[in-house]
Sequence to fold (593 residues):
Amino acid sequence: MHSFSEQCLDMARSILGHNLDSIQPDGSILPAPGEEPRADEPGHVAYTLGEYYRATGETTLKGYDLIDLTARCVTAQMFTEPATENGLAYAALGLLCFGPSKERNPVWERLVEETQVRIDKQLLHRSDHDNHWQAFNVAKAVARYSFGLSKKDETSRLIERMVDRINQTSSTGFFDDSTEGLGGNFNLYGVMTFVFTRSALQLHANSGVRDRKLPTLRTYAEKYLKMMPDLVRQDGLGWAFGRAAGAYGQMHCISLVLQGLRDGWILEDQKPKYFDLLRRLFVFFYQTYLDQEHGFVDLRDEERTAYSSHTTRMANFDAARYLCQWARLAKAVQVPVPTGAPKPPEGNRTVGRFVIFDKSNRKEQGLFLYRDAESGLHAQIPLISSGTTLTSDSLPFPHCPGVFDWPNNVYAPIMLPELTFNVGGVEQVTLPAFYGKNCVTGLGLRNSFYFRYEQPELINTKEEILKGLGTVKVQWNFAGPKISAEFTYTVKQQVELTKFRYVLAIAAPHSKYHVGSAIALGAEGHRCTVQKDDFQGVWQDTEVVTNDPTYRTNYGKIHYLQHLVRDHPLVMRPGQSYRLVVNFEPDIVHTEN
Fold:
């Protein structure tokens, strides 16, 4: 059996073989049919080709001269206007992969003098960032110093600036990707930031800087590593909420685990558990996103979609880059070759756990993770800001693809009551989302788990707190595969509720791309019952959206939407509680290959 490292390189060669012809003579990237190119794609491609060179030492592939292609992409990225800092960072690291000295770097030698001067100028320009873009500043500083374009190394200062900002926005040291508004956009970009920064440090010409900054990175990256055993589903599904999940929810997590194993951040007695995590994450990625017949990454088709900003071309080159990195890391950590039938995850037990991302007087945010060992139900409930764009991806309901699904890139109040109030002639659409106070989790009766929080002030879908309007208390209960949600509203003054809405999405895993052990809804569906509804909503006719391209997930197609609606006014009075209690006992089955 081939080693994991060899498997990764074989897949990287296959993916590159299908995508190198998209690199145009001027270094721009030809998009996949029906898509628009991104300004930073040449940089992504340059970094991928650099990592392929590092992993193999090869300068040609399928008849293509990789040195020439990299030089073209670097040139295209450096002359892109306006400059995209992420593209510049990727291109700079790609250049650095071929050697830290300009005198012995084959790509640098291919560049014309005008491009070499431009690189110096572009890497010098740096704006200050409060989100994951700070990682790109770090990469540019690494490249600038390593190439001898600057005698002053800013890498350490920029990393310290990044972690200072983490400490300012998270009481527990998680990465808040929000730059404005309520704050607390804790998402997959936190994992990406540490993975990318660590990769950049590995290329630093001064290994002393890397050694000095690794303990700093470890302090924060370790928090994500410790989440992984409870985050990763039994079938290998990784990070499943917030923007940019899907294929990247697998790739970033695999990279973090491998880096953690390489750097000794995972204790010896914990390694078997993380090797198993790694295997499951990789198998899910391989079977869910790779066209195994042709050998390329398939993000979008008539059944599924991806984060709107991620192009198919970028995902293919990013996947190839990651596979090359995994190949090198796997050799360093000696990933064991699995033999025999896959074993069930070690210590597979029923778990309910709340990971606190931020706890302050202003707001509490975090992630509730629930896993039922017997049924395989595994839910992620994020209580976070959605950032600048509201979509269903970051709303606080049980994210469990195949069982509890949601449309990607669009908004719908999935498994949450959406209350629209008439406040002084202005419609305010509210959700019990984005933040909480008094977040508590614990054991209930008969080994059940609960997760509850309250909002002392209601918040609208623009993430603006509406002072003086009302409050809501939320409680989720989990007992085996059974889930119940209770929402209790009170208003502080008499107010008119103009509309109430609650939505369920019914989807199916992809007909072709899924793992054999993936969980799905059986014929009996969610088995949803409304135990209490003081809003007197009425179930509408089931909306069939099978042929609507708007309603797709990262993993499969949404076929039906069920709406519980009250579309005429209700006068809500202070001192009175209005409750909605909804119960689920989903019919969970396992798909077959």
